[in-house]
Amino acid sequence: MSRVELIVAPNLNGATRWVAERIATVAESIVTDSGACSLLVAGGATPRSLYELLSSPLWRARMDWSPVSVYMGDERYVPPNDPRSNFRMLRETLLDRILIPPRNVRPIPTSAGNPDRDAEIFAELLRKTLPQSEDGVPQVDLALLGLGPDGHTASLFPGSRAIRETERLVVAVRPPDAPTPRITVTAPLLNAAREVVILTAGTLKAGALLRVLARDGTPESIPARLVDPVSGRFEIVTDLEACERLDEEPLRDGIVTIRL
Length: 260
Ligand code: 6PG
What we know:
By secondary structure, the chain is α/β, with parallel strands linked by helices. 28% of the residues lie in helices and 19% in strands. The chain contains 7 helices and 11 strands. An 8-stranded parallel beta sheet has the order 5-3-2-6-9-10-1-11. Strands 4-8-7 form a 3-stranded antiparallel beta sheet. The chain is globular. The relative contact order is 0.20.
């Protein structure tokens, strides 16, 4: 794993504000340079407050969403209006409250009745709508991820075959204890991003964060260690609670800690 900036806020609110500021800054600078910006976003509970902050009046006035495309990074294989849908959460907390062109909203499809087919459809969409990295991989400007207590990120779970995927950009997975299949982007897509931000907070994530940053461990046991951008920036934005175990083991090289 190359260089990672560990951004430590006092709490989730501080971490959320930092990520919101980063997203707005990236969007403003990328749009100035290229006229468009692409975000790949996470599901789960942690980013809810980030999406609600970005859709608040102050931030709506701050950020022009019209040149921004938003791609879901992973999805539960349920209809888009299902309470478990990541896209439904994103729509309710952000998309329905901002002025973003519908064509720029890129959910992961779950309507083919076949997760593998829908994964192929989304991969094709990524190839058709994103610019390519120097390695010919579709390149998002910023990928936002979460971190599970077991060290998963997106829907790349410990022991999953998807961890070792090197060709396909999107795959269907069937986590052993999950009620539904999932569709997830894979490491090749994530690591082609111009910037990757993992937003995680709270005591429950302290063990996973330690294992992500410790010198030992493998992607099989802690899939978030797959995140290692080829040339992009990599930030882990967290809070004091999630960092409370970082003195238990030697950490790997390349970590730059910034305390907010
Ligand atoms: C999902 C997410 C998943 C999430 C982690 C952390 O579909 O649930 O994409 O990868 O980021 O599970 O979830 P919390 O933020 O809810 O702890």
